[in-house]
Amino acid sequence: MRIYPDIRPSIAIANTAEIAERLRRRELDVGIVEGEEIGLGLESRRIAGDEMVIVAGAEHALAGASEVEAARLREEAWLVRERGSGTRAATEQMFETWGVRPPRIMELGSTQLIKEMAEAGLGITLQSRWSLRKELESGALKPVLAPGLPFKRSFYVLLRKGDARTRTLEAFLAQLEETTRRLMERAGIDAQDLG
Description:
Layout: H1 16-24, E1 31-33, E2 42-57, H2 70-74, E3 78-81, H3 86-98, E4 105-108, H4 111-119, E5 125-128, H5 129-138, E6 141-144, E7 151-160, H6 167-186
Parallel strand pairs: 3-4
Antiparallel strand pairs: 1-7, 2-5, 2-6, 2-7
Pfam families: LysR_substrate (PF03466)
Domain LysR substrate-binding: 4-179
Family: Belongs to the LysR transcriptional regulatory family.
């Protein structure tokens, strides 16, 4: 914003599927998502890597435990994102890999709400390490080691295929890539090793 003070971005927060659909309907010029499955008419470009980790509130019995078996994790209350979210897809992929279907799943449409509920001891969750950086640093949430975790994933910029790109959009994309690189370096995340 300091570099381009005349540009006034409008930011929408939604899951991957919804962002992709809004791009197709030309309601958005660009999307930043955690899912790569975007369907027809769009192209994606990787901009950052991340890890997915299970976390629990600091007082939870599993907080900081050495590797916990999948069968034990099945018995926990799980806090998950809504369908269409890349994080939800990652959670379901993890359950499928483990061959479990937890009976207690609470679906929520906000990562922040999920983190707060996990902090309060209301369940455990699989989330992006990037989205958890403050809670992990403060100790409010603790990792739960489990088979096959953490696993890597990527964040992508979505654009409509074939659309001409304005100078404003090109400037935004260049600034986004530079800012992302700096933030990842500051957080100690090696972008080349993730995703």
